[in-house]
Amino acid sequence: MHPVHSPEVQPDEKWAKAVRESARRSGAVILAHNYQLPEIQDIADHVGDSLALSRIAAATDASTVVFCGVHFMAETAKILAPAKRVLIPDARAGCSLADSITLDELREWKAEHPNAVVVSYVNTTAAIKAESDLCCTSSNAVDVVRSVPADRTVLFLPDQFLGAHVKRETGRENLRVWAGECHVHAGINGQTLVERVSENPDAQLLIHPECGCATSALYLASSGVVPEDRVTIASTGGMIEAAKRCDSTSVLVATEVGMLHQLRRAAPAVDFQPVNPRASCKYMKMITPGALLRCLQEGRDEIDVPSEIADRARQAVTRMIRIGVSGQGE
Ligand code: 13P
Ligand code: SF4
Fold this sequence. Notes:
alpha/beta; binds iron/sulfur cluster; 4-stranded parallel β-sheet; Rossmann fold; 3 domains
């Protein structure tokens, strides 16, 4: 279905002009996630985390939303704005975390806990969201779970590391966590973090809660290796807010490497270094300059979510949009 994207499309001034003109002609707003290539972030109308971009997609007046991110993010935009045309520059941009639970697995899990409340992370397919009571992002996962009455069992899916973080923060014993993970964040492990901290003991730590090292970061803080106020566990949007307030000269960043671009823009005097420089999401990087231009010029790939799924998923997603950003570094 897709031609191989022409590698010769360079993100130069000519490309930028063509992107801007095509977007204007088609009445499109360009949204980019914080993990996108720097040139895609720079041309976008809005750059942000999953929650911020969902809110913008829901509120925009533009008739077309071009979502530079992965498939579940564009699907979420379509669920929230069904009357708008939602495009993604390459529909093959998936997510290993969203793939870590199937609809049959969720239905089986629910059948084992018939009175439980299902809280799904936004990194899930529309079909999984439609089977969920509530949706959350890394910005508001703790608050979303806190909104569930204390006596109800919560089935939290699909990310085990975010689930462990929510369990720690809420102290909730009746929170059951699916054992899924993102291949990129699972690869940022505790051992690598400890090595980086020993090389750079004065650095501040910014950790995404999907990371395998989130527990180690809290251990380093509680055991006094790193002062507690130097460890922030936050969504990608929360990291930018933390960077703006940063009083260290050096920061170690545990998340996908695309994040460094916005962090360096937010605090140019700070030295931001990745905990794992190989932590790159191949799906996010499928949104190339050539793919974005083709998307605007040819109007594809268009996202379609069947209305019977979208209508059920919308309830869970709308509740996610309403529940504010928690104190996770925001
Ligand atoms: P954020 O919601 O923090 O932007 O994270 C999205 C994501 O896919 C992380 O891997
Ligand atoms: Fe999915 Fe991981 Fe890529 Fe985020 S970094 S989009 S969770 S595969």
